[in-house]
Design a protein that fits this description.
Blueprint: E1 2-5, E2 13-14, H1 21-33, H2 43-62, E3 65-75, E4 78-90, H3 97-112, E5 117-123, E6 126-139, E7 150-162, E8 172-180, H4 186-200, E9 202-205, E10 211-214
Parallel strand pairs: 1-10
Antiparallel strand pairs: 1-9, 2-3, 3-4, 4-8, 5-6, 6-7, 7-8
Helix pairs in contact: 1-2
C-alpha cells in the first residue's frame, strides 16, 4: 500500500471521489446551503448537477484519482475558480526515478505541442516532471449562464512524480493536475500554491492494497 501525504491550500474544498448519487446530492445541498440566499433555487437543476457530480466522481475513481478538490474564491476582486486532482498511474520505469522523470517530460511535451512547456525539478519527494500549458473545454448549455454551449480556455499545470521503490512504487507515478479558467490568475495566485503542494508531497509504503491519500498533512 502506498500512502501519499501532501498539503492542500486552504482555499480548496474536497470533492468526493467514487461517491454514489446520494453522497453527491448531499454535497451539493451542503454547498448551496452556505449561500446568502437559496430562494428561488431550481431543484431540478440542482438534481441534474448532482447527477453530473456523481458521474464525474465515479470517473475520477475509475482513472485512478485518489484525491480531488476545487476552489471558488475572490482574487484581486474577481471570482476565481480552480480544480485539483491527485492520481496514481501505471508507468513501469525500471527503478531510476530521475530517468523516469526525464522520459515522462520528453514524452508529454512531444504529445502536447509547442504551446506547452516543461522541465524536471528536484523536490523533497524526488525528481518531478512539471508541465504548463493551455487547453480549451466546451461547457454544455445546461451549465452555461447564457444557456448555450461556450468554449472556455483553461491554464493547466501537471506534475508527474515517479514513486520511489522504497515506498513500493516501482512502476507507479503520482500525477498532480490543476486547471483554472482564470488564466490571468495562474502566475500570481495558483503557481505558488502548486509549488507549495509539490514540496509537501511524501510517499510511504508497506502492506497490501491500493493508494491511501492524505490531503491535509
Amino acid at each position: 500500500m502506498i500512502r501519499v501525504d501532501f498539503s492542500v491550500p486552504t482555499v480548496f474544498e474536497d470533492v468526493p471521489v467514487g461517491a454514489d448519487f446520494e453522497t453527491a446530492w448531499i454535497e451539493l445541498n451542503r454547498r448551496y446551503a452556505r449561500l446568502a440566499s437559496t430562494e428561488g433555487l431550481d431543484h431540478e437543476r440542482l438534481r441534474h448537477m448532482a447527477r453530473a457530480l456523481h458521474q464525474v466522481s465515479c470517473f475520477l475513481k475509475d482513472v485512478g484519482v485518489v484525491y480531488a478538490a476545487d476552489c471558488l474564491h475572490l482574487f484581486g476582486g474577481e471570482p476565481s475558480l480552480g480544480s485539483l486532482a491527485v492520481a496514481m498511474v501505471d508507468f513501469p520505469y525500471g527503478g531510476d526515478t530521475a530517468t523516469a522523470a526525464r522520459g515522462a517530460l520528453r514524452g508529454v511535451l512531444e504529445s502536447r505541442g509547442p504551446e506547452w512547456a516543461g522541465s524536471v525539478i528536484d523536490a523533497p519527494c524526488g525528481p518531478v516532471a512539471v508541465f504548463t500549458g493551455g487547453q480549451s473545454y466546451t461547457v454544455s448549455p445546461e451549465f452555461s449562464p447564457a444557456g448555450e454551449a461556450v468554449d472556455v480556455l483553461t491554464a493547466q499545470f501537471h506534475a508527474l512524480i515517479p514513486v520511489p521503490e522504497s515506498a513500493g512504487g516501482e512502476g507507479r507515478m503520482c500525477l498532480v493536475a490543476f486547471s483554472t479558467p482564470n488564466v490571468s490568475h495562474w502566475a500570481e495566485c495558483y503557481a505558488p500554491l502548486m509549488a507549495k503542494t509539490l514540496r509537501s508531497i511524501r510517499f510511504t509504503g508497506g502492506g497490501q492494497g491500493g493508494e491511501v491519500p492524505s490531503g491535509r498533512s
